[in-house]
Amino acid sequence: MKTIHVNGEVKQIEMASLACLVRSIQKDTSGLVLEYNGRIIREAEWANIELYDDDVIEMLRFVGGG
Amino acid sequence: MDELILGGHTFTSRLFTGTGKFGSRSWIPKMLEASGSQMITVALRRVDSGGRNENILSFIPENVVLLPNTSGARTAEEAVRIARIAREAGCGKFIKVEVITDMRYLMPDNWETLRATEILAAEGFVVLPYVLPDLVLAKRLEEVGAAAVMPLGAPIGTNRGLDTRELIAMLIENCTVPVVVDAGIGKPSHAAEAMELGADAVLVNTAIATAEDPAMMGRAFSMAVEAGRLARIARMAGTSVEARPSSPLTGFLD
């Protein structure tokens, strides 16, 4: 088990990669913006990122706004 | 309409629009087509695993310039972070700096906005700061590299029109960067009034998005913006208290 932070919440996870984590939270990944430890990661790279304790992940998306 | 150049981009429409508050997002492309608007705002939020999570960008045609906003930011640092993420995510170099801590009137924090504008302009962003119309602040924003200033007409979503008319007029008369009236514009006549006053563009979201037919309302705003702009360029006649006849008063029946 690893302890990570996702969108400000502490999560205990067993997934190995960023790609697995993202898909467990959001099935529809279109337009998803992923920040991993302060760095934007493109979707093609998600599978190559291995997760470690204390990683900080922000999952963001563009929404309607004025 | 005459062109507006902003951040190296040429706009032939002086109506900027927003993506908030549409009952159905499928109205967005219809509204953009009907209004001819060439710039539209979007916001960035954390994914809500249980909520509505459609990708708003998929509703915006590629030829429309994206203007991500920094809504949600309470400090300059938060605004800068949102701007950097938006650019990294492929939203281009335009950014509407919006820093708000007052939740009753959603008044922009002019000081934090100035700080964020300075940082982002130095990083190459085309910065459009949303501000309370204050001439001294507007001149400072110009100095630190703002591409335009966006004074509010009235608080966001109030539809009250140009409550700040005289203060906006000071900005228009004295700023060298474009003045874009943002927030409070509730109907096409308000937009025409802003353009007659000399605004370079207006940004309208609520009044279009919450109309029963947002596409038709977008068209109505576009016509009002064009009418106001043409009236400004054509130079309007002055006003007077006493009547001035438009027909000759002598030469018949006298």
Summarize the structure.
The complex is a heterodimer of chains A (66) and B (254). Chain A is mostly beta strands.
What does this structure look like?
The complex is a heterodimer of chains A (66) and B (254). With 66 residues, chain A is mainly β. Chain A contains 1 helix and 5 strands. Chain A has a 5-stranded mixed β-sheet with strand order 2-1-5-3-4, with no helix packed on it. The model of chain A has no long low-confidence stretch (mean pLDDT 90). Chain B is of the alpha/beta class and 254 residues long. Helices cover 35% and strands 16% of the residues of chain B. Chain B contains 8 helices and 10 strands. In chain B, strands 5-4-3-10-9 form a 5-stranded parallel β-sheet. A 3-stranded parallel β-sheet of chain B has the order 6-7-8. In chain B, helix 1 runs parallel beside helix 8 (214-234) and helix 6 runs parallel beside helix 8. Chain A binds chain B through residues 7-8, 25-26, 28, 30-33, 35, 40, 58-66, and chain B through 18-22, 25, 41-47, 49, 53, 55-58, 68-69, 71, 85-86, 88-89, 91, 156, 183, 203, 205-206, 209. Strand 5 of chain A pairs antiparallel with strand 4 (39-46) of chain B, so a sheet runs across the interface. Chain B: The active site is at 96 (schiff-base intermediate with dxp). Chain B: InterPro entries: Aldolase_TIM, Thiazole_synthase_ThiG, ThiG.
Please name the defining characteristics of this protein.
heterodimer; A: 66 residues; mainly beta; Ubiquitin-like (UB roll); 1 helix; 12% helix; globular; B: 254 residues; TIM Barrel; 5-stranded parallel beta sheet; 35% helix; ThiS/MoaD-like (chain A); Thi_S (chain A)
Q: How would the blueprint of this fold be written?
A:
The complex is a heterodimer of chains A (66) and B (254).
Chain A: E1 2-6, E2 9-13, H1 18-25, E3 32-36, E4 39-40, E5 56-63
Parallel strand pairs in A: 1-5
Antiparallel strand pairs in A: 1-2, 3-4, 3-5
Chain B: E1 4-6, E2 9-11, E3 15-18, H1 27-35, E4 39-46, E5 65-68, H2 76-88, E6 94-97, H3 110-122, E7 126-131, H4 135-143, E8 150-151, H5 165-174, E9 180-182, H6 188-197, E10 201-204, H7 206-209, H8 214-234
Parallel strand pairs in B: 3-4, 3-10, 4-5, 6-7, 7-8, 9-10
Antiparallel strand pairs in B: 1-2
Helix pairs in contact in B: 1-8, 2-3, 6-8
